[in-house]
Write a structure and sequence with these properties.
With about 50 residues, the chain is an alpha+beta fold. It is built from 1 helix and 5 strands, in the order ββββαβ. The strands form 2 sheets. A 3-stranded antiparallel sheet has the order 4-1-5, with helices on one face. Strands 2-3 form a two-stranded antiparallel ribbon.
C-alpha cells in the first residue's frame, strides 16, 4: 500500500477520492496515478484515509 495525495477527484472501488486529500491505495495503481499526474506520492503527510 502506498499513500498518495490526489490532484484530481476520482472514484476508486466505489469510493469518492477528493482532490487535495491523502489516501492509501495499492502500489500498482499508485504508480500509474503518479505517472499520469492524477496523484503525487505523500510520504510523511497526515492524515490519510484508508
Amino acid at each position: 500500500m502506498t499513500k498518495v495525495k490526489m490532484n484530481v477527484q476520482t472514484a476508486y472501488h466505489g469510493e469518492l477520492l477528493r482532490a487535495g486529500k491523502i489516501y492509501e491505495i495499492d502500489e500498482s495503481t499508485a504508480k500509474r496515478w503518479i505517472a499520469s499526474k492524477i496523484a503525487t506520492k505523500a510520504e510523511g503527510e497526515y492524515p490519510f484515509k484508508t
